[in-house]
Amino acid sequence: MIQAHLPALQVVVPLFAAPLCLLLPWPRAAWLLATVVSWLAAGIALALLWTVRAEGPISYALGSWPPPIGIEYRVDLLNAFILVIVAGIGAVVMPFAKASVERELPPERIVLFYVMYLLCLTGLLGITITGDAFNLFVFLEISSLSSYVLISLGRDRRALTAAFRYLIMGTIGATFYVIGIGLLYMLTGTLNIADLAARLPPLLTLPAVQAALAFLLVGISLKLALFPLHLWLPNAYAYAPTVVTVFLAATATKVSVYVLIRILYTLFGGLDLPELPLRPALMGLGMLAMIAASLVAIFETNVKRMLAYSSLAQIGYMVLGLGLGTAAGLAAGIVHIFNHALTKATLFMAVGCASQRQVIGLRDLAGLGRRMPLVAAAILVGALSLVGVPVTVGFVTKWALIQAALAVDLWPVALVVLASGLLALIYGWRLVEAAYFQPLPDEPAAVAPPLAMQAPLLLLTVACLLFGLAAGWTLGLAEDAAAALVGPAP
Fold it and tell me: How does DSSP classify residue 450?
């Protein structure tokens, strides 16, 4: 029965489609194949989430070799949710991609884009679904290597230096990760995550285990661009082709946050480890990211760099949530993976619709409300979501984080969350001001984007409002996933 093999198909379908794209003679055929595969991957992810919700976690043994001997794909509520986010964003991005890449990429590179996109999608889905720590490293490298190529495809020469910086930082992060896994394998003799989680508790006081955790945390923090290990991200988002920025901003760092949650809460059983101050460290870094990155964003004039620094601040919200160490805090961090994916995909997609330029300044948005009202409305909704205004998905996260902080009497943390929202109001207002209150420029206006670009933007904008008004499904899902990791909230 095909349903029994859905975990394998989640990875195999985009993996085998990537080289097929390279064999297709026309860019339109490559786009069509990538689109069909993306929507198929989204359907598989939804089916897996439905099955896990109804029947519990799924364990799939590749090649019928039972774990921990063979490689296991394991799907529980947490990674089923992340699979839906990654595959869903990929499905929404592909209709937008056709016109966008034709605007920004030379014709000879368009097919290469779809090949690398499918490989990146394969890597991100594989990272999320695998239950094997070394297999996770393999998929991490697949997604990273394809991301370097995707970023370098930009017409601006700075895209090459951005991709090279990301390559250096990403390689360091992957090296740290594989050293940490090597230490754990040396001590336990297994690479299966569930098996590692069962064998590690008696060994947590060993210096080698603590060193392994340190390597893992630094490696993953580089991948998720946790402040101050974030230097690769702003230029990578700013100078990559717009569709690449949309996809990576909504998925890549979110998958890395998932890996961090999996390492801390599944592998090591939580944050209460002997002699390791994980709670204050994660909370401190999260709050530092929220404030410092927001302050930098206020002074940016390059819109994509501004939104990139905003992403760094939003990563801080996620890390702060899981750093609280409670079910409520972890649920807030998990639901923000979804909420921020929607918000940032909306904003970057709107910026791509607003101008054909790859490097977009605030002046390029002048008069957008009159020239492209739908695009300007999407920017308004995205900016309100970053601030955390009610009826947007951003409000759901901030409210959940503030409640989680107050539940453990950490009112200063709640104040930092509010302060970060006020800083977001400042740079978000700069986007809205340019779109609605600045006069139309004298230079010729940008050509209105085709319907294929506006339709996905409209869908994401409506989703930002819909899941803000009816947050029960996503927040309930996040709460259930958090409860499975740390126990139900008191």
Answer: P
Residues 255 and 301 in one domain: no
| Residue 313 C-beta-side C-alpha neighbours within 13 Å | 31
Which residues in the chain show pLDDT less than 50?
Answer: none
* Nearest-10 Cα torsion for 272, 400, 297, 243: 100
- The reply to whether 258 and 312 lie within a common domain is no
- Torsion angle of alpha carbons 372, 247, 252, 41, nearest 10°? 130
Residue 365 tokens, joined: 């948005």
Looking at residue 33, its pLDDT comes to: 92
Residue 170 is assigned to a structural domain of this protein: no
In the structure encoding, which two tokens stand for residue 145, read together? 């290597």
What 203-212 contacts at long range (C-beta under 8 Å, 24+ apart), as own/partner pairs, is 204/268, 204/273, 204/274, 205/274, 205/275, 208/183, 209/183, 209/184, 210/273, 210/275, 210/276, 211/180, 211/183, 212/179, 212/180, 212/181, 212/183, 212/184, 212/187
Q: Is 188 a domain residue?
A: no
Long-range contacts (CB closer than 8 Å, 24 or more residues apart) made by 405-411: 405/324, 405/329, 407/326, 407/328, 407/489, 408/324, 408/326, 408/329, 410/324
Gap between the Cα atoms of 305 and 318, Å rounded:
20
Give the number of domains in the chain. 2
Cα–Cα nearest to 44, from 90, 12, 7, 79: 7
My answer on whether 245 and 299 are in the same domain is no
How confident is the model at residue 359, as a pLDDT? 60
Range of the domain at 363: 283-490
Domain contains 332 = yes
155 DSSP 8-state letter: S
The answer to whether residue 37 is domain-embedded is: yes
Count of residues making up the chain: 490
The pLDDT of residue 40 is 94
Which residues make Cβ contacts (< 8 Å) with residue 466, sequence separation at least 6? Answer: none
The single residue listed with the structure tokens 């990760």 is: 177
For residues 239 and 338, state if they share a domain.
no
End-to-end alpha carbon distance in the chain: 41
Based on the fold, state whether residues 310 and 388 are members of the same structural domain: yes
Do the beta carbons of residue 402 and residue 418 sit within 8 Å? yes
